[in-house]
Structure formats: structure tokens, C-alpha cells
Amino acid sequence: MSTVVAAIDCGATSVRVCRIDLDARPLVPEVVHRVTHVPRRDVAGHLRWDWAHIFHSIVEGLDRCLELGPLASIGVDTWAVDYGLIDDRGDLLGDPFSYRDHRTDGYRRCVDEFGAAAMYRINGLQLQPFNTVFQLAVHPDDELERAARLLWLPELIAHALTGTSATERTSAGCSGLVDLSTGEWSPELCAVAGIDAGLLGEIETAGRILGDWKGVPVCLVGGHDTASAVAGMGPASADGSAFVASGTWMLAGIERRQPDTSEWARTRNFTNEAGAMGGTRFLRNVTGFWLLEQCRARWNEPSIDVLVDEAAGVLDDVPIVDVDHDSLRAPDDMLDAYCCLAGIRYDAAPGVVTRSIVESIAARTAEVVTQLAEVETFDDIVLFGGAARMSLLRERLAAWTGRPVRTGAAEATAIGNALVQGIALGVFDSLDAARHALVGDPAP
């Protein structure tokens, strides 16, 4: 009898629910349900996630999975840093804030008061305005005062399914609140956030069963979607592989046993994020195809495939911009903001703008890979995630880096989610063994 699991994979623009047969070789996810979602502005003008829509979509997807046959377990991953607050009855106090909300624009005040170097020595994270530590520092006091527990979004969904609270390592590790030297909450950074560490719960590693939903076990997996994606990228080459997880963000990095909180890493804004089953993902965030998704809305939603095909036919040079520029973080009109930054006419052909976006993303990602090569040795680059299917992106990333680019799974996040479920269920005895199942090979 096959071991089929459901992987709930929530990105910042869509909810996906997949069925994956862990006994199949190679593993191939079946996307059973996919629904888009966007944050909404509350009465105060802040961006919050539509929790009711997200959770309803998840349940709808799980019900469809069950209609197709029994499930051995369920796992949940989402994007990082965002969270929900629950009261002592387990009720959500308000829709979670979106990391793209401008309420954290003044985050540098926290950094300057504490000291950027001192903060990095503790948490080892890339400075981003949306890190949870900065979100909590400006969270409404009335919600914080009524909160009994903070749950990051993967564990908030698992709590809604099972009633069990947990704090998973990869979710916690992106908060900016963990002391890398101890693996526990930093009292100093909790003070910056203005919270008591008791609100956060005890940090634990993925790979156990939390509870059940409709009789189906719900497993604690690598809650941060990038952690799950890296778990699902497949075996590294003999001399090591860098990785690029592609999607809303491009995350370029390498797996390490230990974090690097050196001045070299800090000044280049590298981040140390927890691996799904241990170790560290040493990487840097680059703004990704969220740029193109936002521009599509002004072009009456042509498909990504059509836009990329048009872009591949653009033979003239196009402007290369800094895709991490502040003006592109959350503009009201992305097309206008991008064209202004690039010096492109607002009414330029979509293929021209798309080519500029792809080139700019590839160029910025290549900068990160080049910096990694200063301190790490690796053979090739594994490109996986939603944009891995774009031959134009693969070609341009190879051209900008001067390195071979190997394609991993487009649904790497859901696969990594499922592999960790397999470890919790005893199907695999290690992540290495689970990764080799992706290519149908036994682990060495």
C-alpha cells in the first residue's frame, strides 16, 4: 500500500495543496488545489492577510485530497516572518499582518539603538524591515496584551487543524529573535521586540506528529517554505552545489553545518537560516518574480509563459536595475515604479519590461553567487521552485554566473515538505536518504 501525504504549501501569492506518493520513484507531486490570495488593508490602512480565505482554501484542498484516497499525513509550510497571535482560548486575535506593510519602515531605529553588528552577532540574519523582531516592535499593544501565544503562520495553520501549538526551528529562525550560539530565544532581542520570550514557546526541530485533522496525522515539517524547498532540491553534486530557490523571492545560498556571523557575512548582508532537519542555510534574499506578478495586473493578466516567450524574443539590450531598491518594495503601481527606476516608457511592450525584469533578477542573483564563491567551493547551481521552468531564466543565470545551472523540481517546496513527513512517518531514516528518493537512487 502506497504512503500518500498531503503537502500544504502557502506562498505569499497562492495556496497549493499537493498529494505526493512517498513510495513512488521518482517523487512527483500532484497539485490538487491551487488558489491565489492577496493581503487586504484594514480600517487603519495596514496590510493584513485574509486568514479566513487562506484557511478555507486549505481545508478545501485537503477535502479534495481525501476524495482521491486516504492520506498518511499532512504537513504545512508557508513564507517566513509573519505570525498570528492567539488568546488563552486558542482564538486568533486578528488577521496576521503582511510583511509588505509599511508599519516597519522605521526599523532602522531599532537597529541603530541596538547596534547592527551586535544584532548580527546574535541572530545572524540579513537586515530586512519585515523581520519578526521589527514587526513585533510596532505591533498594536492591545493585541499583544491579550495574546497568550505567538505562532508563525505554518504552525498557526497546524494549530487551526489540530488545536496543538508548536514553534518549529525554521519558522523561529527567520524571526530575528533566536541566539544562534544557544539555539534559544535571545533575551536582548526579545526586549527589542517588546515581548516576553514565554509568548514564543519552546523551539523544536521538524519531524514529529503534532495531532490530527479528520483522523489524519499532521506532521511538523520545515515550516519556512524555503527550508522545505532546500530539503526537496535533491542530492548535491560531488563537490557541492549552490542553490537558488525561485519564486516571489530568489534565495541564493549554500548549505552549511554551522552559521557564519563574521563581519564579512554581515557587511554583505548574508543570512543564516535554520535547515529543515538541522544545519544552516547560508543565503541572501533577492527580490524575485513578485515584480512580474505585480506588473501583470496592469497588462490584463497575460500568462507568465506568454510574457517570458515575448521577453526571449527581445534582442536589444535592456536596462538592468537593482531589484531590491526601496521603490519596488510595495508600490501602488509596480509597472510605473519599475519603469521609472529602469528608465523605460510606461507604455513599453510587456516583453521588453519582462526581459528587463528577468535580466535584473538574474544579474542580482549572480552577484550573490559570486560572493558565495569567495568563501565556498561548489560545482554547480541548482535552480528550483516556480521559476525553474523558465529556460530564459536558466540561460541568463548561467550567463551572469559563468557556472552550470541544474534544474530542480518546480514544486520543490511541496516535495521537501513531503520528505520531512516521510521522516516523521519512518519512511526515510534521514534527509539524505529522502533526497535520493527524488532521483530514484539509493542513498550512498
How would you describe the overall organization of this protein?
There is one protein chain. The chain is an alpha/beta fold. The protein has 2 domains: 4-227 and 413-438, ATPase, nucleotide binding domain (Nucleotidyltransferase, domain 5, 2-Layer Sandwich), CATH 3.30.420.40; 238-408, Nucleotidyltransferase, domain 5. 36% of the residues lie in helices and 21% in strands. The longest helix is centred in the C-terminal third of the chain and has 23 residues, at 350-372. The chain starts with a strand and ends in a 6-residue tail after the last helix.
Name the shape in a single word.
Answer: globular
**CATH class annotation of the largest domain:** Alpha Beta
Number of domains: 2
Distance between the termini: 26 Å
Helical region count? Answer: 17
Q: Total strand count, please?
A: 20
Q: Classify the helix fraction into a percent range.
A: 25-40%
Instruction: Tell me the CATH superfamily of the largest domain.
Output: ATPase, nucleotide binding domain
* Biggest sheet character: 6 strands, mixed
Query: Rg from C-alpha positions?
Result: 21 Å
Q: Determine the mean pLDDT.
A: 95
Give start-end ranges of low-pLDDT stretches. Answer: none
* Name given to the CATH architecture of the largest domain: 2-Layer Sandwich
Give the neighbour order of strands across the main sheet.
3-2-1-6-14-13
Strand content bin: 15-25%
Enter the CATH topology name of the largest domain. Nucleotidyltransferase, domain 5
How does the helix and strand content classify structurally? alpha/beta
